[in-house]
Design brief:
Number of helices: 18
Strand content: 15-25%
Strand order of the largest sheet: 11-16-15-14-12-13
Oligomer: single chain
Bound molecules: beta-D-glucopyranose
Number of strands: 29
Distance between the termini: 22 Å
Shape: globular
Largest sheet: 6 strands, mixed
Structural class: alpha/beta
């Protein structure tokens, strides 16, 4: 930051020192670790090395998946557990799902979630959290949309790296699924076909950031293929990009069961650990492959060395297990609530919110009365207590007159209430990781099973419920639960307010009450565009086995097609008004510092989320109409003003040329700042002539 501007800065968009504090992976003495790895390897037999490169058992042992480890050699095992919304083991704090956390646009908060989830995993004797999920939300119909943060790679990278750095204060992380895993129903066979430019510019930057900046200790490979080759044996991904380009020092573990498809090909390509058990990496298969020359002992030694590396770097042999009392402790419960409050996106409000405690309220819909934490796939978390919207509203104040109606209740009475709050949305039945029917039957559950959504509308009965309520109630507020975009156009004009509350975690009900009654202003922004209709988006076929991936999806696709969505990326209303003024831009050593003055012009404490998008003029290649390249979040009291600094490095302005690599092009760049992607009133234009940068007008 230039000295002249220093005294004006009150908030940095991404404070690296804060975000990365305590991340063990970033503070490793690589030479010392490598010496120790080699010392160990020298004392190990082939058998012992093979043991290091596979899991032990198909089913978890007390909730943990084990890999490697040798008591005689004093080598600890990896003990892995899932974690995109908290620790999937016993009772734990169920945080709002990642897409909700993405909506906070709050990187410091996401670091805290990483810290808390990592601590709970450690307290349960785990040492690897299988998170974050950072696959790009290419289409909102993806069943696992809720597990990831965003349709935008910049935003996804910023949130992902914050989680990684937080969690790596306590455990290893495993950003997943590397790479291009963005459809559920065909995930085991689908080939994501992608050109080099789109791969590097759109589908990988967030992984790169977690690996290079976040020093993620491990990476989980994806089930699907990239350009016809399974990601679990893809030399380009696992070796050329991850190791050679990015300098990754940790280990790659396969996604479970079908993530490893071969023995020699996978090991040679750089699949270091087969999980959850050695089907392909079993003794006989490996020794046979060595015997016929498909594999060498040297390669096994290399992979075993990578598997050992982080055990030493993170000193796993000597780490103490934190006290169990940290699990679902008051700090984590409060954090879950804070995150939920900051994640809700107010999409429409025609003078009805916030509510007052003197109003009588009718709460309608079965979803108001059931815990709805997200899917029941690998990211499922069980909490000892969950506050539903109904319990949260009832607990908020004794004064409020609340009546509850299930979805099939007779609604004739509801016009007596001052307002009706309808809770609708999706559940694990309509979306989520796909759970095969046999597994569900053996677990005794119903046949609901997640998977992708072929369309984006609510179940018909819920649309009818909204319409019925809207026709009878004095005022209608809709709360939408779900993990991604939902089409609302057939009913949104009939309701007075609409708020997206995602899958809001164990404290969701309390958070909903506090936002509805105005104890806290909504401040979430959409990390995924809500189209008017699925027809506005690219083709979406949930049975597809070959899918072309290019530069355009989400808002980039909508912009290119000149389609206006129902609610754009980055959009979200507040109970106050903010003004953004006085954009100043300085250039210092290969980066720009943009400072914008943010003022709370209303009478409510609230948070603003300034967003920076870049557009390109005279580019030699096709570029998106605009791309998010920075954002920040700042809370302000009425009348308060703060300066938000957004840093933009030259690296973010490059495009990827398959021949030359990352190119900083001589052309004109528009830096545009606003509070939602479709309204960017502040602008500064800079031109690059190949050597120097000049602001427009000079
Ligand atoms: C999922 C992974 C998960 C693993 C272990 C797989 O089916 O795709 O995300 O970490 O199971 O539970």
């Amino acid at each position: 930051m230039p000295d002249a501007m220093k005294e004006k800065i009150s908030k940095k968009s991404f404070d690296r020192e804060k975000i990365h504090a305590g991340n063990i992976g970033r503070n490793v003495d690589h030479t010392a670790v490598q010496i120790e790895v080699e010392r160990l390897l020298a004392s190990m037999s082939l058998q012992q090395k093979i043991h290091e490169i596979r899991g032990w058992q198909a089913a978890p042992i007390d909730g943990l998946f084990y890999a490697g480890g040798d008591e005689v050699l004093n080598i600890p095992s990896y003990r892995m557990v899932d974690g995109p919304r908290g620790a999937r083991i016993g009772m734990a704090t169920a945080f709002p799902v990642a897409i909700a956390r993405g909506a906070t646009f709050d990187v410091e908060l996401e670091r805290k979630v990483g810290l808390a989830a990592g601590l709970e995993v450690a307290a349960k004797n785990g040492n690897v959290i299988l998170a974050p999920t950072i696959n790009l939300l290419r289409h909102p119909g993806w069943g696992r949309a809720q597990e990831t943060y965003s349709e935008d790679s910049f935003h996804l990278g910023a949130m992902g790296v914050s989680f990684v750095s937080g969690a790596q204060n306590h455990v290893l992380t495993s950003p997943k699924h590397f790479a291009l895993n963005n459809i559920e129903m065909t995930r085991f066979e689908m080939s994501a076909n992608v050109d080099e430019r789109s791969l590097h510019e759109v589908y990988l930057p967030h992984f790169k950031r977690c690996v290079v900046e976040g020093a993620a200790a491990s990476v989980m490979s994806a089930y699907n293929k990239m350009n016809g080759v399974y990601c679990g044996e893809n030399f380009v991904l696992l070796n050329d990009i991850l190791r050679d380009d990015w300098g990754f020092k940790g280990f790659v573990e396969s996604d479970w069961f079908l993530g490893t498809r071969s023995t020699a090909a996978a090991i040679n390509a750089g699949m270091d650990i087969e999980m959850p058990v050695g089907y392909r990496f079993d003794d006989a298969k490996i020794t046979d492959a060595i015997a016929i020359g498909e594999l060498t002992e040297k390669t096994i030694t290399r992979n075993a060395g990578r598997a050992l590396y982080q055990k030493i770097a993170f000193d796993l042999a000597n780490r103490e297990v934190p006290d169990a009392s940290v699990v679902e402790c008051i700090e984590h419960i409060e954090l879950a609530q804070e995150v939920a409050e900051k994640s809700f996106v107010l999409l429409k409000n025609e003078g009805v919110l916030p509510l007052s405690t003197t109003q009588s309220i009718a709460i309608i819909g079965d979803l108001a009365d059931i815990p709805n934490l997200g899917d029941r796939g690998s990211s499922m978390v069980t909490s000892s207590e969950v506050t539903t919207p109904l319990t949260g509203l009832r607990a908020y104040s004794d004064q409020v007159a609340i009546s509850y109606y299930s979805s099939d209740a007779d609604l004739c009475d509801i016009n007596k209430a001052d307002v009706a709050v309808v809770v609708v949305g999706l559940t694990y039945k309509e979306e989520g990781e796909f759970i095969p029917t046999q597994q569900l039957e053996s677990e005794g559950s119903d046949l609901a099973r997640g998977g992708d959504r072929a369309h984006l509308r609510l179940p018909e009965s819920q649309e009818q419920l909204i319409q019925e309520v809207a026709s009878k109630a004095k005022k209608t507020i809709v709360l939408l639960e779900g993990g991604s975009a939902i089409e609302v156009s057939s009913w949104v004009n009939e309701v007075d307010a609409l708020m997206m509350v995602w899958y809001p975690g164990r404290e969701g009900g309390h958070a909903i009450a506090r936002v509805l009654f105005g104890a806290v202003s909504p401040s979430g922004k959409l990390p995924v565009s809500f189209p008017r209709s699925i027809r506005q988006l690219m083709d979406w076929d949930i049975t597809a086995l070959d899918i072309t991936h290019d530069l355009f999806h989400g808002y980039r696709y909508l912009d290119k097609k000149e389609e206006r969505p129902e609610f754009p990326f980055g959009f979200g209303l507040s109970y106050t008004e903010f003004t953004l003024e006085d954009l100043q831009v300085e250039r210092v050593e290969h980066r720009f510092f943009l400072v914008v003055s943010v003022r709370n012009a209303g009478d409510t404490v609230a948070a603003a989320v300034p967003q920076l998008y870049v557009s390109y003029r005279n580019s030699a290649v096709e570029r998106p109409v605009k791309e998010l390249k920075g954002f920040g979040r700042v809370e302000l009291t009425p009348g308060e003003t703060a300066d938000m600094e957004i840093e933009l490095s030259d690296e973010e302005l490059r495009y990827y040329d398959p021949h030359y690599g990352w190119v900083l092009e001589a052309c004109t760049y528009d830096f545009r700042v606003g509070q939602t992607s479709d309204n960017l009133p502040l602008e500064s234009t800079w031109s690059f002539d190949g050597e120097d940068w000049l602001p427009e007008g000079i």
